[in-house]
Structure formats: C-alpha cells, structure tokens
Design brief:
The chain has 244 residues and is mainly alpha-helical. The protein has one domain. It is built from nine helices and seven strands. The strands form three sheets. Strands 1-4-5 form a three-stranded parallel sheet. It has a two-stranded antiparallel sheet with strand order 2-3. Strand 4, helix 2 and strand 5 form a beta-alpha-beta unit. The radius of gyration is 17 Å and the shape is globular. This is DUF218 domain-containing protein.
Length: 244
C-alpha cells in the first residue's frame, strides 16, 4: 500500500513541482522525487510478488481537481512504464486505487477494505511504502489501532534526499504522531477537522457494502479517545493462520 500525498496533473514530467498540485509545505528539494520513489519501490515489490496487490490510497482532496490522489499515482506508474504488462496488451492487473482516504489512518484501514473489495478476501500481510519519518506513526499507532499483527506488517521508508532531517521529523511529531497518540482513530477535534477539510467534494466510501465485516471498526469512535477497538476482526490471529 502506498499512502498518497499529492495529485499529479498528468503532464509529460513527474519530477517537476509544477506538474503536481502541492500544499506549500510540500514544496522543496526532493519532495516530488520522493513521491515517484514511493511509486517505483511499490511497483517493484508488486512485480516481484505474484500473490500481491498494489493499492495506491488517497482521495479527492483538492478542490481544484476532480482526480483522486490514488488515481494520479496509478496513472503515473502506468505512463512511466514501471508497471509491467501482463499480456503485452492489458494494464498490470494487480494494481488498483483506494479513492476515499483523507488521512494516514484511513489510508491503512480503507486499503484493507479495498483489498477485500477487489479480491473477495482480506490480506494476510501488509507492506506500506511511504516516508521513513512516518514509520512510527504507521508501525506504532495505526497498526496498533487496527490490531494488525506486527509479524504480518512491514514498512519501507523513502524520504526526500534533502528533507529528511530535523524539520521533517519535528513536523511529523507535532502534526502527525502526537495527535494520533491522543486520538487513535482520528475522529475527534483536530484530526477530524483535517479529515473534513481534505474532503471538499463530500465523498463517502463504499466499504459498508463491500466489506461488511469491517463495519464495527469503520464506525468506531470512542468517547475516550485512546480506547482501542476490542471487537472481532477478520485478521485475528487464528483467522490469519487459516487464510495463509
């Protein structure tokens, strides 16, 4: 799974900032190259694992574009030729988009739901390809919030070449990691406001219908913001072993 961060406009280039719709804090040396590296690394992993499904996750987050982040990443991968052809005439069949996530927690949860929607079953292993400085957020907070087994979860981190130092780490700590320690499901105050601001077209996911086993988790928003979901999940340990 690749958590998307911006929308590629679909031009002939993908390493120029002008070819992306970016927030001001996303501009700077190496940022869009890092986006491309996330796409390329994930494509390589999917190509080498014939049992995998590559999911680019990111919603319709920009008022100036009707394209979703996930769709733009997949289109870039196809145009750049980093996804192989299965039959030399059809697109690579093991790559898809998750087009409703508005934050990193939803990137992970909704990608699991999209995997089920696409394949008819839940994954038995997850590999996330994203920023290295966001590794703790995914490994320690989002994975734990979903009670996904640590042994079945990997994170491949790729940071911008010139922007992986103190500023990026401190920004992630203050704006990502710490807020999620206080609101694990992103459904209160600050994180909820961010989620709403990133959804200018008021889109809503279809996973109640396509992944009904996840409805209790999709609806989970505890009054005590640090309370973990305790209901049954499709990836409980016994079910993971059975499906593998």
């Amino acid at each position: 799974m690749v958590p998307c961060h911006a929308i590629w406009k679909g031009s002939d280039s993908w390493l120029n900032e002008d070819d992306w719709i970016l927030e001001s804090y996303q501009k700077g040396p190496g940022r869009v190259k890092a986006f491309y590296e996330h796409i390329a690394r994930s494509a390589e992993l999917a190509t080498n694992d014939p049992h995998s499904l590559l999911v680019f996750s990111g919603g319709q987050t920009k008022l100036v574009s009707s394209t979703t982040e996930g769709e733009s990443y997949l289109r870039l991968a196809q145009i750049a030729g980093i996804l192989p052809d299965q039959t030399h005439s059809l697109p690579f069949g093991r790559a898809t988009t998750e087009s409703y996530a508005m934050d990193s927690y939803q990137n992970l949860l909704f990608s699991i739901a999209r995997f089920h929607e696409f394949t008819g079953h839940f994954p038995t292993k997850i590999t996330v390809v994203g920023y290295e400085f966001k590794r703790p957020r995914f490994m320690e907070l989002h994975r734990t919030a979903l009670r996904w087994p640590e042994a079945k979860f990997e994170y491949l981190g790729v940071d911008p070449e010139h922007d992986s130092g103190t500023n990026a780490v401190e920004g992630e700590l203050q704006n990502g990691y710490l807020p999620y320690t206080q609101d694990k499901y992103g459904c209160h105050s600050t994180l909820l406001d961010k989620r709403r601001q990133r959804n200018p077209y008021s889109r809503f996911h279809p996973y109640y219908a396509s992944s009904p086993d996840l409805i209790p988790l999709l609806d989970w928003c505890p009054g005590d913001e640090s309370t973990l979901f305790e209901g049954p999940l499709p990836w409980d340990h016994s079910k993971i072993r059975q499906d593998t």
